[in-house]
Amino acid sequence: MHDQINEFKEYIINHPVDEIRLPIFVFNYYPAIDFAAFYGSVNIFYFLLSNCGSKITDDTLHYSVIGGNTDIINECLKVFPVDKLCYKYAIETHNHKFLEYLFGQQDFNIELIHDYYWVPDYRYGFPRLVEFQNLKFMFLLYEKDKNSTIPWCSAFPQAIEILNDKELDLSIVDYRKTSILHYAVHFDDNKEVIELLLSRGVDINSKDKFNKTALHYAVTNKCKGIVELLCKHGIDINAKDRKNKTALYYAAKLNLIEIAELLLSHNADINIKEIRGRTAIDIAVKRNCKASLEILLSHNSDINNNAKDDKNNNKPALHTTAIYGHRDIVETLLSHGADINAKDNENKTALHYAVQHKYTEIVKLLCSHGIDINATDSNNRTALHYAAANFGMEIIKILLSFGADVNIKDINNKTAGQIALDIPFPSIARLLLPKTEFSDYSEEDEEDN
């Protein structure tokens, strides 16, 4: 805003000030005085205050801190005291002049800062002030209360300047038990800080409230250099978080090929199962992470492990990929020796699921690799039964070409053709049954269906 006071005066001749609402943030409209404070339009601000009956609110104070105009801020402080949102906006907008003013006050209240910076940013899992990278604030706080910068200051590479201070208590953790080392591993250019912390005896295997070590976070933040550094210093490569997930599990989940290889080179256990029984290979299959999968398979992982699906049913990896429709993953698993005829706890093979989900190309692939075309599940249903129930004409033709038995009956004594007739899918019934079993259907009946 350009603080064009004359144009503003002319505008309000025909527009009552108390009716003016202007957008500061999307979908939010505020009084003109807040708008002036937000943009630091000091002339308009004082005009509204002196001539238009506008009132300063605590919102006006907060927006003045964002706007950064000292005169407007001082005017607002005559009406409202500094609160934690003043610190929030000063930190996030790098209003260093105001921060210096706050830190210099005799009634400076550090608890207002604590209220702000212990609140995590949920996108990243650490305090918002780290996201806004306000170095000036970090050094101001260090001068006021050294240990108030612990543990989060280690997220700044420049913190090396203060971390040499022997008076700092490096054992301080935040409310999530996040240590100074946990914060340090969020950025790949922070190796010098990490080396310093480890040289000062910081516990490399410390865990936060989620039971995660610094290695878990280094992996999920895709910091290969930090992962390598932690491994070199002997961090527990197979440490499990509260869901029993290892760093390798997360590397597989995120398809981080180089990091997965690095962890495996340091003897990461490829067959550790998380709480639902999934290994790194299972999550790579589910997420369609082919590159990670091939690396894992080259290290003798248990390819036929049974993991629990989202409904708590046991599923081999081949079943999982058939459910999600990842043809390339199916091919990769088969080429590495996956048991093509393995069954889950419903006695279904991967073919049953590929048919149910109408993945024609996967059906072809499984059949061409010699899967038992007539395998039955717990209800004595074959893949052909499911194809008939799903009106899968193309899949039915594929199954028949590979020798599917049309005479197998399910638990209800129904063949696939009889299921199609009951629904009714006359065209499929005609393909699977003798004419006598659907003679009551005419061509018109089929068109209606």
TrEMBL record:
Keywords: ANK repeat, Repeat
InterPro entries recorded: Ankyrin_rpt, Ankyrin_rpt-contain_sf, DUF3447
Residues covered by the DUF3447 domain: 54-139
First and last residues of every ANK repeat: 176-209, 210-242, 243-275, 276-308, 313-345, 346-378, 379-411
PROSITE patterns: ANK_REP_REGION, ANK_REPEAT
Repeat in keyword set: yes
Pfam families xref list: Ank, Ank_2, DUF3447
Keyword Ligase recorded: no
SUPFAM superfamilies: Ankyrin repeat, Pseudo ankyrin repeat-like
Protein name per UniProt: Ankyrin repeat protein, putative
Organism of this sequence: Trichomonas vaginalis (strain ATCC PRA-98 / G3)
